[in-house]
Amino acid sequence: MRVLVAVLSLCMLVGVAAAQSADQKSVQDPVTMPRIECAFESVYLAVSFGTDDAGFTPGVCEPNGLPAWEWGLSTYVPAPPPPYGPNVWGTVLNGPYLSNTGAGLSSPPLLVEVGVNELVELVHYYDIETNFDGGNVVVVDGSGGETVLVPMAGYPAIISTSTSYYAYCVDMEPGCTGHEAIWKESCADLSPWDGQWITLRLDFGSDSSVTYPGWYLAGYSFGTDQSTPVEQGSWSTIKGLYR
Asked: Residue 46 phi/psi, 5° resolution?
């Protein structure tokens, strides 16, 4: 199991208690994931999927898991708020995700710099089978090590604690699960990777039954909460962040 960043909140601890531990499926929703935006003093790079896929690459994150990630216009969920949209990345754009999905979506490599881009804010929407299916964000470092990146608000629950159901890629890991069904911002801290090149991978997994609309992404912002002025990224500096 991948290691977790030590920023778990009380919200996550309560959510874990709500996770299903028996072998039968539950209809109980986990604790709602709070909306916590990044306290940006400066935004260095904003990434929108509205008119471009931003170089993100879909892939299978576990053998035998089915692919899911698609980029484009979705008529299945509400349009994201301005300035995002109209296009999004989603786990199937115009219908529910499939059973036995095990799909990852990887960003281009990013250099994390002190006082520049140590915070990441995800604008996302999810409507997922509670406790049994879900998604999370994984940091892949330069050596190939993988760490589940936990938002400052924590995740709602541990996914698929049942021994009878298995969620590809995210089984027994914390993640977004349940019927949030609104566009929201979630902030996470990248400072443990200062000075390193990393890739962000969004993993999504489902078990063998019951599906819903899924997980949808409008965009990201990278920045800092430090008060030291940071020059806003031009297209040339933005390109310099990526290999």
From this structure: -110, 130
At 83-110, the pLDDT tens digits run: 999 999 999 999 999 999 999 999 999 9
* CATH topology classification for 3-20+36-241: Jelly Rolls (2.60.120)
State pTM to two decimals.
Answer: 0.83
* Residue where the block lists tokens 């902030």: 187
The domain spans of the chain are: 3-20+36-241
